[in-house]
Amino acid sequence: MTLALLATSHSPLLDHVDLPADVSGELTEAFAQARAFVHDFDPDVVVNFGPDHYNGFFYRLMPPFCIGYAAESIGDYGSQAGPLNVPEDIARGIAEAVIAEGVDLAVSLDMQVDHGAVQPMEIVYGDITAKPFVPIFMNSVAPPFTPLARVRRLGEAAGRHLATLDRKVLLIASGGLSHDPPVPRLSNATADQRRMLMGEGGPLTPEAREARQQRVISAAREFAAGTATIQDLAPEWDRELLRILASGDLSPFDAWDPGEMTRIAGNSSHEVRTWIAAYAALGAAGPYSVRYSYYRPIRELIAGFALTTATPA
Ligand SMILES: O=C(O)/C=C/c1cccc(O)c1O
Ligand SMILES: [Fe+2]
């Protein structure tokens, strides 16, 4: 058994906006660190904790967590589309172990994932099929949200099981930190948006997909220019999150209230659930140390953008 962890914010805007040269340079360096770390570890399998943005999971039936026994990337924002290389036996083993510990985890034999799940694989390998890949969906945009204590328990149960495998497992978390991109919300949806949130009408037409993406790209440009109405990033909240994750004691998250998270850090701040689950999984196998940590609030990406790597201490 060996576990290692890469946790990173994602942003579909990475390829769609211009970044100041210093920010771009920092990200190039952070991604190079991630690549070197992962290539050095050379995992047998990746277990990926990722959100979805109403591309694979809808209000027709919205589980808090779901593991894919088979999965396909839909290819939004120009991300790589197509089937993922999911080892069904490993996915089933995780599902059975987590459920046996009393954490209900839905399973899918046909999971659809978006940029939120696959971007780290694209950054590290340039190919989402480069390694066997088990996707674990964490609901991070569709209220109501399960308590963080349960997210932690899911991660711990998965980690305890993975620690028994004779494999090198890379845990990836993709999401967060504070951010509030204009993803439609049920609470103030128009009739058309409500149908989209429910997953009615099948996949978006290319025109509707383009319009949806352009709305987010425009919002990012306005946010960077200081003219957007979306909620601001919350660097202090982000830094406190990173501090707790690095401490090895994740129990303080149990007191974090989902409503407060939204109020302070934005509607999509719940993507940090992926980080808490992945760090909990690593911690379940023993003490760990953070090896690399990058953080910067980047309005052009609508992201409190962080990237960390960690290994057993
Ligand atoms: O348009 C979407 O579905 C999401 C966009 C987005 C923008 C910025 C940061 C993120 O984590 C996102 O998912
Ligand atoms: Fe996201």
Automatic annotation (TrEMBL):
Gene3D superfamilies given in the database record: LigB-like (3.40.830.10)
Transcription among the record's keywords?
A: no
One Gene Ontology term of the molecular function aspect: 3-carboxyethylcatechol 2,3-dioxygenase activity
* Names of required cofactors: Fe(2+)
A Pfam family found in this protein is LigB
> Which keywords has UniProt assigned to this entry?
Aromatic hydrocarbons catabolism, Dioxygenase, Iron, Oxidoreductase
Its pathway, per UniProt, is: Aromatic compound metabolism; 3-phenylpropanoate degradation
List GO BP terms, alphabetically: 3-phenylpropionate catabolic process
Q: Which catalysed reactions does the entry list for this protein?
A: 3-(2,3-dihydroxyphenyl)propanoate + O2 = (2Z,4E)-2-hydroxy-6-oxonona-2,4-dienedioate + H(+); (2E)-3-(2,3-dihydroxyphenyl)prop-2-enoate + O2 = (2Z,4E,7E)-2-hydroxy-6-oxonona-2,4,7-trienedioate + H(+)
- InterPro entries listed in its UniProt record: DHPP/DHXA_dioxygenase, Xdiol_dOase_suB
Record's SUPFAM superfamilies?
Answer: LigB-like (SSF53213)
Q: What class of enzyme is it?
A: oxidoreductase
Give the Enzyme Commission number: 1.13.11.16
Identify its protein family.
Belongs to the LigB/MhpB extradiol dioxygenase family.
Assembly and binders? Homotetramer.
Q: What is this protein called?
A: 2,3-dihydroxyphenylpropionate/2,3-dihydroxicinnamic acid 1,2-dioxygenase
Protein source organism: Amycolatopsis methanolica 239
The record's gene field reads mhpB
